[in-house]
Amino acid sequence: MTSVTKHLVELPVVDRQRDSVLSRAMTASPSRPTTDVSVVILDSMDRMFGQLLERLEGLTNEEYLWEPVSGSWSARRRSDGRVVVDGAGERDIDPAPITTIAWRLWHIAIDCFDDYSRRFGGDPSDAPETWTLDAAEATETLRERWNSYRSLIGRRNWWDQLGPNWEHWSQHSVADMAMHASNELVHHAAEIALLRDLYRASFAPPNFEGATLFRTSFKGAAMRGCDVSGVTMRSADTDGLDIDGQDLLFGSLCVCGVDVVPLVDAELNRQFPGRELQGSQTPAGLRDGWVAAQAAWSTTVADTPIELVDAHVDHEWSLAQTLRHLVLTTDAWLRLAVLRIEQPFHEIGLMFSSAAEMGFDMSSFRTDVPSLDEVLAARAERQQMVTDFLAEATPELLAEERDNPWGVEGWHPTVGDCVRVILEEEWAHLRYIRRDLALLA
Q1: b/e per residue, 83-99, with b = 16+ CB within 10 A?
Q2: pTM (2 decimals)?
Q3: Stretch 205-221: mean pLDDT, rounded?
């Protein structure tokens, strides 16, 4: 069953203009002229769409992909790298599923406007299921599909029959279809507006961007996933201030006028011999860096008491979980990005905590807790894959360009970049787990 049959309710067949559903509705509205139906319909449609665009202003990716309840339909990245929507092609679901803003924008743009435009052009095939995880791209696609539909509908005779491309609606008028399309637009726009209101009221964190705070106590607070870039502290009590994060080394951090990032980087290289090779540009340097990282990991795993393997500090991963995440890292940056394997992920891999909210397909991964033997076996297998790859790597291969495995636009890493990401992840997580094991001990 094609998409139009789901959304278009059965109406009396329109044989004459005076019998049109639209004509009856217009006659009941004396405040508007009934002589130029085209102006009334198009003006109403334009205002509805304009209101939707206003409600989409400032939409973030987190809000766009927010699932108000467990099991919501959304857009998700599959293991083959494609982004598709849940339930595409499924019809007459009862009860209807709760959906995200991402799903509703796909439905309006593709399942409705694009579908109608294609039918007017002679193509009655089902709507594509592919979509985007980016809110700005979704909004722009919505605008493009609307403009195409708006241009087509504006050139039609309202009382023409739709024709065979519209299946059991073939004998209804263009006007009937336009009224239906307006109904789809306005009620889904209202649902999107409600989702935005619920998100803002329930989950949106306070925003101090650009604010000046005096005598405010953050004593003992924990900040995770917060943007503190450009923050200035003056006459602040910083005793015991603890800052940690992998991205720290890619920017600057000034303490009393001194950028301490180079000092921190040098100290970490001293504490973790071989870490300085994570940025190497040569095959030999990357091979040596990989050997050093694996030797350090081997020592850490061997020295960890069995009772601490699954123990963790608040909001941090245990050793077993960290090893599972490093399996995922290898799968993403070597097997998917570099080797372009269609099904790259091991089921034991562990995604970062917000992956589902960001729309990544989690169906490839186990939901139960694997045994330590399973984790170590998967980890050893992936370590050997990197070793074997680097043994044959050449400067020419390292210079080849690849796609970002997480679909982030604007950066197409080289093969060498992908290997360096793997090394950076190895050293960063080794540091995290040694820090946490010291606290647990």
Answers
A1: bbbbbbeeeeeeeeebb
A2: 0.59
A3: 86
